Automatic annotation (TrEMBL):
Residues 48-184 form the DUF4142 domain. It comes from the Bacteria. Gene3D superfamilies: 1.20.1260.10. InterPro entries: DUF4142 (IPR025419), Ferritin-like (IPR012347). This is DUF305 domain-containing protein. Pfam families: DUF4142 (PF13628).
Length: 193
């Protein structure tokens, strides 16, 4: 009876075949463990939490983009001051969200949605008091009402504790932005430029 040799045993020799099998077995376990860890890590964020993160990024991107337009187009110091604060604060929150998303394997958009970009394009065509009023109403009040609603929901219903904590921590700032926007809207609506 002729012994059958495995291909790796013929190459390595009969004495090292056991060692080679152990190394190959350990390697296979490591590869399987890495694959399992990647799959577990990728599935850690429930779909609704991922959706919240994407919508939050889009909302922040829209605030920043529209506020940059306001800095260029408005001559009203109150509008410019509000726009500068929105750029700074939404950029900071956006950076925190990006950091969170990177730990959760979530890809975030770097731009506003198509609908948000269309609204910003409309703003870009306006000037003077008309621009100020539309910016305060559309980006200041309406966009912040939507953001507050989005973050309130996530602060109570997010399943991932880190996502929930981000929403809870960010919500008061958005509520403050809404209050500031409401006051700005009152000022620009009352002005006669």
């Amino acid at each position: 009876m002729t012994p059958t040799l495995r291909p790796h045993a013929r190459l390595a020799g009969p004495r090292s075949s056991g060692k080679l099998r152990r190394v190959m077995g350990a390697t296979a376990l490591c590869v399987a463990g890495v694959a399992l860890a990647v799959n577990v890590h990728a599935d850690t964020v429930p779909g609704k939490d991922k959706s919240f993160m994407i919508k939050a990024a889009e909302a922040g991107n829209a605030e920043v983009a529209a506020s940059k337009v306001a800095l260029e187009k408005s001559t009203n110091p109150a509008v410019k001051d509000f726009a500068q604060k929105m750029i700074e604060q939404h950029t900071q929150v956006g950076d925190q969200l990006k950091q969170l998303a990177s730990t959760k394997d979530v890809s975030l958009p770097s731009e506003p949605t198509v609908a948000q970009r269309a609204k910003i394009a409309v703003l870009d065509k306006l000037s003077g008091a008309t621009f100020d009023k539309r910016y305060a109403s559309m980006i200041g009040v309406t966009a912040h009402k939507d953001a507050v609603k989005l973050f309130q929901k996530a602060s109570t219903s997010a399943q991932d504790p880190d996502v929930k904590n981000f929403a809870v921590k960010t919500l008061p700032g958005l509520q403050e932005h809404l209050q500031m926007a409401t006051e700005l809207k009152s000022k620009v609506d009352a002005s006669r430029q």
